[in-house]
Amino acid sequence: MSVLPRQLRMLTLALLLGIAGPALAQASDPTPLQFNDNAEETRFHRLTAELRCVMCQNQSLADSNAQIAHDLRREVLDLMRQGKSDAEIKRFLVDRYGEFVLYKPEMSPGTWLLWFGPALLVIAGGVVVLRIVRRRSGGRDIAEADDNQEW
Amino acid sequence: MNTPSDTPGQNKSRGALVFAAVIIGLFFVGLMGLLAYGVKQSGRADREALPSPLIGKPAPAFDLPLLHDPATRIDNADLAGAPYVMNVWGSWCPECRVEHPVLTKFALTKRVRFIGYNLKDERGEALRWLEQFGNPYVLVIADEDGRAAIDWGIYGAPETFLVDAKGIVRWKHVGAVTDEIIARELIPALEKAEAQQ
Description:
heterodimer, A: mainly alpha, Helicase, Ruva Protein, domain 3, 0% strand, B: Glutaredoxin, five-stranded mixed beta sheet, two-stranded antiparallel sheet, 6 helices, 7 strands, disordered N terminus
């Protein structure tokens, strides 16, 4: 009977030391994923970091503790072992959960604005700046007149 | 006194300035519009619900046991021929308890076949839940490990699907269903599916 209070003391200590977080996270994961080798593990971590958790939408699949994230991680590993490529695995998830699961959305007419919008803005800004600079250098006397102006 | 409008060149540059100001103003108004839209959208209860890519596509192939009789298995072909509403639930899901009276009332109208999809549950717990709160489903299929749920794009409970007679997914709702959602979304989607048969 004296074992339990001691474990409780240990747990309290662990909580105080802030190491209980990862311990609890593992406890909620009924069967932790086992990797065959380092290469597989590296590929798995890289792939799941690029996929978004559908339940907790600000986390990647790799980071999330949600039940569905656990299930999807297991599914991703299974698909990897079936010899599927990264693109095929992403396709699999997009077909079921939508484009949303990709942190890097695919290039398609629907996402052109997303991909090229910033570049378009930079180009538009550049054109405006260029025109202003040209006009200023063209009418030098205006610039001189500006110098005399009181603000 | 020299005023800026004295020379034609200055006139022109002033026109350009006004033009630029109008463009920037419009851009700003557009941004404000986007912000207003975003704020309005963030008030939606289901703001985190994702649109299902399955809508308009055939329901995924599945083959799952019945909750009440695990020896009997149900697949797509068993459900074909008439539309059905499939409600994903679990005894572990608090929101399911919230929508349960609403769904029970809807099921009692017998408007459409109402099927339960018991997700990642323990059989005993699930049966006890149905006994306690009532069983509105004509049949309940059990997906204990949640594998088939991935094919449906299910990411939690409750979720509710409408599948038509040909097995095409017509509608999906993530989160608890309310009377208003049934009246405003589910019934019209069902009527449309029936009209197209």
